[in-house]
Design brief:
Helix 1 packs across helix 8 and helix 3 packs across helix 5. The protein is an alpha/beta fold and 212 residues long. It has one domain: P-loop containing nucleotide triphosphate hydrolases (Rossmann fold, 3-Layer(aba) Sandwich), CATH 3.40.50. It is globular and about 50 Å long. Bound molecules: thymidine-5'-phosphate.
Length: 212
């Protein structure tokens, strides 16, 4: 089937503990059963160089990087990821499912107010030619439940960014919701409080226009 359908680029976004990784895996498995070649990947990371940058970004204390450096490092990791994995796969007509992409930078790196959306998008233009997903799913659950899930997963050992306070994470989630409002064609808000299977089925239904 991948010979006749063009490759599609899907990103999953949301706060900590919203189930993105689980859904990314389930979605790529289901798409593969349809005969598609699917690359399941993540950000920051997805290639050896970008995984090295991930390690730099997510370990150590919050003061390790200032917000501009942090935004530049995310853009650098994304540049590697786009150049070495995402763009070549799409050019071959394959699908890419990424657990986080540019909307995470727009949401997380703009909270402090030091950088705005235009600046973050201009870093993306320089690093990755402004590549945007064909569809982005924002997984949305109440912040309290997400925080409980993230705590259970990390067992009190959150990474450098996940460990920021709840006010920060609420602002991040508000930004994600605003992308769904402002860019309704690409960005779809998904209620992620139901079962894993129900959510995956909603995502598949949403993609059905590209699957026949
Ligand atoms: P996770 O994908 O394992 O949840 O961890 C990645 C962390 O990095 C998470 O706290 C969100 C954060 N992040 C950003 O702040 N900006 C970005 O551009 C990306 C991709 C992730």
């Amino acid at each position: 089937m991948s010979d006749i359908l063009p490759g599609r680029f899907i990103s999953l976004e949301g706060g900590e503990g919203t189930g993105k990784s689980t859904q990314a895996k389930a979605l790529s498995r289901l798409l593969e059963t349809k005969g598609l070649k699917v690359h399941l990947t993540r950000e920051p990371g997805g290639t050896p160089g970008a995984e090295t940058i991930r390690e730099l970004l997510l370990t150590g204390n919050d003061e390790k990087w200032n917000m501009r450096t942090e935004a530049l490092l995310f853009a650098a990791a994304r540049s590697e990821h786009c150049q070495s994995l995402i763009k070549p796969a799409l050019e071959r007509g394959e699908w890419v499912i990424s657990d986080r992409f540019i909307d995470s930078s727009r949401a997380y790196q703009s909270v402090s107010g030091e950088l705005d959306d235009v600046q973050i998008m201009s870093l993306h233009q320089v690093g990755s030619g402004g590549l945007m997903p064909d569809r982005t799913f924002i997984l949305d659950i109440p912040e309290k439940i997400a925080a409980q899930r993230a705590n259970a997963r990390d067992r009190g050992d959150s990474d450098r960014i996940g460990g920021r306070d709840s006010e920060y994470h609420q602002k991040v989630m508000a930004s994600f919701r605003s992308y769904a409002t402002n860019e309704p064609e690409r960005v779809h808000l998904v209620d992620a409080s139901s079962s894993v299977e129900e959510i995956t089925s909603k995502l598949m239904q949403n993609l059905s226009e590209w699957l026949s």
